[in-house]
Prior knowledge:
Distance between the termini: 42 Å
Largest sheet: 5 strands, antiparallel
Bound molecules: calcium ion
Order of helices and strands: HEEEEEEEEEEEEHH
Strand content: 35-45%
CATH class of the largest domain: Mainly Beta
Number of domains: 2
Strand order of the largest sheet: 1-6-11-8-9
Structural class: alpha+beta
Oligomer: single chain
Amino acid sequence: MNKLSFVKQLTTVxxxxxxxxxGMSIARTQTASAASITNGGFETGDHTGWTVVKQENSGGDRxxxxxxTTQLTGSSIPNPTEGSFFSVTxxxxxxxYVLFQDIVLxxxxxxxxxxxxxxxxxxxxGVSDAGNMSKDSxxxxxxxxxIVDTSFTDWFGPSSSAGVLANLISPTAxxxxxxxxxxxxxxxxxxSGSTVRLAFRNVDNKGFFHAGVDNVQIQSASIxxxxxPTTILGLLALGGAGFVSRRKKQAVK
Length: 253
Ligand SMILES: [Ca+2]
């Protein structure tokens, strides 16, 4: 081996080692967690991290339960899907209830929301949607899940769609007895860089209605672009070392 070939080999080894280090840095960046849900499984045994709002003169409330039966009426319900507790509505008369939490969705990240739910219409009265969430509009009997703006407070007003950014679960009701929870997954990446309000809502005025929620989670991952290999080599040649944190769109300007 002549001297020139030996130097070339050394250069290749050094560049490969540098690329491996760069790759590890990028991998760590991509697995970083961002947004999170507080007490998404209700395992504190209460609604810590959540806000519960109920329409005035509602005949029930949201309760933390271990499953099997509801607190007020003793209706049969499923067991939790995660841990020991979940949140459920129960009532002795017409009512409307909201369970919400604000979620910070960092920019430059993807965000996938998932949760488990059921909407047991205990007398099999059937879904009714009056176009609002007021218990005083008869018939009005359903469960829905929305993403709303953080300033949204019109929970029971005449237009349930005003300020709704996305409807995740359309107005629905399930015939009794529900056998278990449904799992739902939604991509919230479109809202990256903002704070949104996740709202579980149900109104009932046609009989007992049990809206269960458990295992609310959000998975986030960086979507910062990975430089192309040729770009990496070019930057290495220039002696650049700070490019890992730079966005691809900045590098190609
Ligand atoms: Ca739980």
